[in-house]
């Protein structure tokens, strides 16, 4: 499939042409151009402590004569590394081939339980239905923050579109078929014999060379529509094209509209909605969130968040405003930026459905509360700012509200309100009284309740421009104190 053919498809489906690019001269990683020693490549590319941990897991698997593979993103990223680059690892996916492991509970779970005995500090989470266990280290002195998922190879059968899959033990080859994209269906064998062997059953390496996202089968997005979000995420993150036939499969899924019931009922297919939230978080945390949302909108994939949700210019303006204002409002804004962007997106949805979606996504309780109350807060702030003429009265009004509420209100308000809240965050909220308690004491006033009242009045007069210097404040405070006596 060449770029001309892909361009024709995107034009036909009214997709943005900016996703068309020529990858023929893309500088490929050396790892894609040579037949590398994959075990050495892994050991050289990951942190030494992580590699030692992997070696211990490999030894445990070999003691049981189990075939252990590393699969998915870490293998993909390994082939995309530039020379002397390291992989920043937060998640490692390991699979035990069920053909070599007759464990009743699942070899992945059994292997994880064995490792838990060796590392008592690690958090072990077991998912029996999925034959999977997770080992999580959080800010560990040696390993940092890393999660290792160990799975018994399996197949997934979807009884109906968007359903939770039915799990059945199967060989590693069938396990790879359940993966989302060819570039994520690569596996490297970690145990002997044939240690370091690459399993590339679906030409994932070829698609890495072509810099394209491609699904494994036509029903992929019907089975799991969240894969559409993942396709867009990887396309934007890796600067890859989405393969033309894969685009058609996306349209087949979005036109099928199997997800409408989620806006009407609470707790429908919870694992699906949680994965939707995780993908939204990943997209909205990135600097390229706008490109991703625009592509999802063009695909019609925002339908899975809410049928009828349209990413129009006004919503994008509000989201850009939130993104900018976050820089001035809180030093920890990066931790919740994605959540506020999502709240802006959800705010355009009718209140009843908005609350149900927020509950299904398992958003924090304070987020659900904001989504329920933001219209009333917006009304109160807008009316107050228009009512008051003094800057101090306006600032005191805004001081009553949580900073996140102010950001959302500003984004959804007209220009004059936006501008004042912007001034509040960037300048007005940083202004303090020209005098403090020590100054009042040095002037000769005895400490007491009057201090707070006097300093508040001084601040108000400073905000209103009646006081410009400390000397003017010292003169003014005499009148204030006499009035308070």
UniProtKB/TrEMBL annotation:
<dbReference type="GO" id="GO:0000049">
    <property type="term" value="F:tRNA binding"/>
</dbReference>
<dbReference type="GO" id="GO:0008033">
    <property type="term" value="P:tRNA processing"/>
</dbReference>
<dbReference type="InterPro" id="IPR002646">
    <property type="entry name" value="PolA_pol_head_dom"/>
</dbReference>
<keyword id="KW-0479">Metal-binding</keyword>
<keyword id="KW-0808">Transferase</keyword>
<dbReference type="GO" id="GO:0046872">
    <property type="term" value="F:metal ion binding"/>
</dbReference>
<dbReference type="Pfam" id="PF01743">
    <property type="entry name" value="PolyA_pol"/>
</dbReference>
<dbReference type="InterPro" id="IPR043519">
    <property type="entry name" value="NT_sf"/>
</dbReference>
<comment type="similarity">
    <text>Belongs to the tRNA nucleotidyltransferase/poly(A) polymerase family.</text>
</comment>
<keyword id="KW-0548">Nucleotidyltransferase</keyword>
<keyword id="KW-0547">Nucleotide-binding</keyword>
<keyword id="KW-0819">tRNA processing</keyword>
<protein>
    <submittedName>
        <fullName>tRNA nucleotidyltransferase/poly(A) polymerase</fullName>
    </submittedName>
</protein>
<keyword id="KW-0694">RNA-binding</keyword>
<dbReference type="GO" id="GO:0016779">
    <property type="term" value="F:nucleotidyltransferase activity"/>
</dbReference>
<keyword id="KW-0460">Magnesium</keyword>
<dbReference type="InterPro" id="IPR052390">
    <property type="entry name" value="tRNA_nt/polyA_polymerase"/>
</dbReference>
<feature type="domain" description="Poly A polymerase head">
    <location>
        <begin position="68"/>
        <end position="213"/>
    </location>
</feature>
<keyword id="KW-0820">tRNA-binding</keyword>
<dbReference type="GO" id="GO:0000166">
    <property type="term" value="F:nucleotide binding"/>
</dbReference>
